[in-house]
Specification:
95 residues; two-stranded antiparallel sheet; 6 helices
Length: 95
């Protein structure tokens, strides 16, 4: 996976489906899955597997992945951080 599933995935699925005027059965038919699966996803009882997630994203035009962690790792702003190794070196240097 490229990122983590967002916490509000069930709300995103339900809201997007309703905005399109589809029933849960309509959505299930469009992604070629069972209506029970859609119900469980919308209730938050089940996290979508990768293949189902991709179908939902494509059909509903939404994103269910949180890629904020990717954005942070791409930032090379040059910020200095202190590690435990740095602390050990500092402590040994004080003696």
């Amino acid at each position: 996976m490229e990122g983590e599933i967002v916490d509000d995935y069930s709300d995103r699925i339900r809201t997007s489906r309703m905005q399109k005027g589809w029933t849960q059965k309509d959505l299930a038919m469009r992604i070629k899955e069972k209506e029970l699966l859609v119900k469980k996803l919308e209730k938050g009882d089940l996290i979508p597997e990768d293949d189902v997630r991709k179908k939902l994203e494509q059909v509903l035009g939404i994103s269910l992945l949180d890629t904020a962690s990717d954005d942070l790792s791409a930032d090379t702003g040059g910020t200095l951080t202190t590690t435990f190794g740095d602390l050990i070196k500092i402590k040994k240097g004080d003696r």
